[in-house]
User: Which sequence fits this backbone?
């Protein structure tokens, strides 16, 4: 079997900005909800049998306590936020398993569900449906892959390396250095995508990067400046890596058959 794990938050945002306004019989804005439900039903009609959808029932999470500038619901349109519970209810009624996240994020749920599903020998492939770069860390070989449903591009482990220059296991370190504007942390000054990929392709993780730039066996510009920045801001880099690391210690289901669409 294949397991499809869907980023409900991304899908709701995507449909909110793509579709014209539409209201339900109670006058509530519901266009995005309808769009997501139709999209998920299309996946099921195309053959998806085991599906889980994760949503950010509350935008804030435990990460906001670690980094006050982490993303919040501020600035999100009220009629978009109001559609989260509507979407969760509509999908549940449609027989789809939904995980409305409060303390953790939808991304954490997707990562945890992917790890749990992949551990089941009955599962042939886990497909994480989101373009979010955070989830690249969950990709494993060709068994756990990431699908951008909008562009229809699927990334296996080789695809992640081709895109970011580092394997999935180094994605949290990569994001710690380059930052993630969408999530609200800036990374370290001077550490761009190319230099970060080159250094981490050689050393893998923050702890393995030599403090002395003269020991770097990497062809990148401004090695001395990068090394000094990392040395000065190492604690912040480790914090950002914590923010970027998705939690897989969340129990969402006991048996993958619980994800079968009913």
Assistant:
């Amino acid at each position: 079997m294949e397991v499809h794990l869907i980023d409900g938050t991304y899908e709701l945002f995507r449909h909110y900005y793509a579709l014209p306004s539409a209201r339900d019989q109670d006058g509530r804005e519901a266009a995005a909800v309808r769009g997501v439900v139709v999209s998920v039903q299309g996946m099921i009609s195309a053959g998806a049998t085991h599906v889980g959808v994760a949503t950010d029932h509350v935008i804030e999470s435990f990460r906001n306590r670690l980094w006050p500038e982490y993303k919040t619901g501020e600035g999100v349109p009220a009629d978009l936020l109001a559609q989260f519970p509507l979407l969760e209810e509509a999908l549940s009624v449609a027989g789809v398993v939904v995980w409305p996240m409060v303390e953790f994020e939808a991304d954490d749920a997707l990562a945890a569900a992917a790890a749990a599903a992949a551990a089941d020998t009955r599962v042939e492939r886990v497909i994480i449906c989101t373009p979010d770069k955070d989830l690249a860390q969950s990709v494993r070989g060709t068994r756990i892959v990431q699908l951008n449903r909008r562009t229809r591009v699927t990334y296996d482990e080789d695809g992640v390396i081709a895109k970011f220059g580092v394997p999935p296991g180094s994605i949290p370190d990569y994001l710690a250095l380059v930052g993630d504007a969408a999530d609200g942390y800036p990374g370290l000054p001077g550490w761009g995508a190319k230099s970060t990929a080159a250094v981490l392709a050689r050393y893998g993780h923050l702890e393995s990067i030599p403090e002395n730039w003269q020991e770097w066996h990497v062809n990148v510009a401004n090695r001395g400046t990068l090394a000094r920045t990392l040395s000065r801001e190492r604690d912040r880099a480790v914090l950002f890596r914590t923010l970027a690391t998705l939690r897989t210690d969340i129990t969402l289901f006991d048996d993958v058959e619980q994800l079968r669409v009913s």
Notes: The chain has two domains: 2-163, 168-244.
